[in-house]
């Protein structure tokens, strides 16, 4: 008999939340996976509004609450099968990584291990890719460990970087890959 137990996802986002939007849409009517909550370190994050639009509980928190276990306890109350970082910029505390070993994933807008690490997010990544005259960029969906962008890769997808491309042009191509692959990868991880 098929496993019909609902599997909860908890999203973390720091900004606009376009990836969160895609994930919310993808799992809106899913038979056994649902987005249970969205957490943000930024009270101005548009991702909070996106969650609200899908009737998904949304929470904000401070750095102190993130580090002292308050957020961890709140997240645990949703019994998540997977924690998904969808444009979340803070390093996950050790307690989270231990509690949810290989159950936290992130999407990075480059082909790790290149262009990863502290400070390498968003425009900074695409500008570095263009400056290095890379022939390609892409996305890496990976498990989260105690260090920025060093967890085991789950999926990499590539796109061309053309001569004369601006960081914005590369960003647009990379975002397309993010929107295309993130939610199906989550589904595959949870449903095999």
Describe the protein.
The protein has 192 residues and is α/β, with parallel strands linked by helices. Helix content is 37%, strand content 23%. It contains seven helices and seven strands; from the N terminus they run βαβαβααβαβαββα. It has a seven-stranded mixed β-sheet, covered by helices on one side. Helix 2 links the parallel strand 2 and strand 3. Helix 1 runs parallel beside helix 7. The longest helix has 25 residues. The chain is globular, with a radius of gyration of 16 Å. The model has no long low-confidence stretch (mean pLDDT 96).
Feature tags:
single chain; 192 residues; 7 helices; 7 strands; globular
How is this fold's topology laid out?
Layout: E1 7-12, H1 18-27, E2 33-40, H2 46-53, E3 58-60, H3 63-67, H4 70-76, E4 80-85, H5 94-99, E5 104-108, H6 122-131, E6 136-143, E7 153-160, H7 167-191
Parallel strand pairs: 1-2, 1-4, 2-3, 4-5
Antiparallel strand pairs: 5-6, 6-7
Helix pairs in contact: 1-7, 6-7
Short description:
The chain has 192 residues and is α/β, with parallel strands linked by helices.
Termini separation? 15 Å
Tell me about the biggest sheet? 7 strands, mixed
Q: How many DSSP E strands?
A: 7
| Series of secondary-structure elements, N-terminal to C-terminal | EHEHEHHEHEHEEH
Approximately what portion of the residues adopt beta-strand conformation?
15-25%
Class computed from helices, strands and strand pairing? alpha/beta
Please state the overall shape, judged from the principal axes of the Cα atoms. globular
Mean model confidence by pLDDT = 96
For the biggest β-sheet, the strand order reads 3-2-1-4-5-6-7
C-alpha Rg (nearest Å): 16 Å
Into which percent range does the helicity of residues fall? 25-40%
Contiguous helical run count: 7
Low-confidence stretches: none
């Amino acid at each position: 008999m098929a496993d019909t137990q609902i599997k909860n996802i908890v999203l973390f986002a720091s900004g606009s939340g376009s990836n969160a939007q895609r994930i919310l849409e993808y799992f809106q009517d899913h038979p056994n996976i649902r987005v249970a909550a969205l957490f943000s370190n930024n009270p101005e994050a548009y991702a909070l509004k996106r969650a609200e639009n899908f009737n998904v509980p949304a929470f904000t928190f401070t750095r102190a609450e993130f580090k002292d276990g308050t957020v961890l306890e709140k997240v645990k109350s949703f019994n998540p099968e997977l924690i998904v970082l969808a444009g979340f910029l803070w390093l996950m505390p050790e307690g989270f990584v231990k509690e949810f070993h290989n159950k936290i994933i992130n999407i990075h807008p480059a082909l790790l291990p290149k262009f990863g690490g502290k400070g390498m997010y968003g425009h900074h990544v695409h500008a570095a890719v263009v400056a290095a005259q890379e022939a390609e960029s892409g996305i890496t969906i990976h498990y989260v460990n105690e260090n920025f962008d060093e967890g085991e890769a789950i999926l990499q997808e590539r796109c061309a970087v053309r001569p004369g491309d601006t960081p914005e042009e590369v960003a647009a191509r990379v975002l397309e890959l993010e929107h295309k692959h993130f939610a199906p990868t989550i589904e595959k991880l949870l449903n095999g």
